[in-house]
Amino acid sequence: MINIKCKLNSSKVLRIAGVAAFMTLAFASPSAAQDFSGVTTFLEAIVDAITGPIGIAISALAIMAVGFSFMTGRMDWTFAVSIVIGIAIVFGAATFVQNITAT
To answer: Averaging pLDDT over each range in 3-17, 31-45, 72-86, which range is the top one?
Structure first.
């Protein structure tokens, strides 16, 4: 039977931990989680959908609802104004932010 005694004192443990930490940092490659291209693509797709044909169709339906309520005599001016202002904000937001962040 072989009996190997290994004495580890605190300086050896710290040295081994330091070498392990250095090797980890030296040979580490950037994580895939640091690549935000997927998130950026997803958010751009949402903006394109809202300001594209889907957003135009929803806005047209909202204006039709305002017109229908006006036609039936149930027009609420705060509802109509909020629809128009909301449409202006939705379609103007991307242009507004693009002009602010332009370099």
So the answer is: 72-86
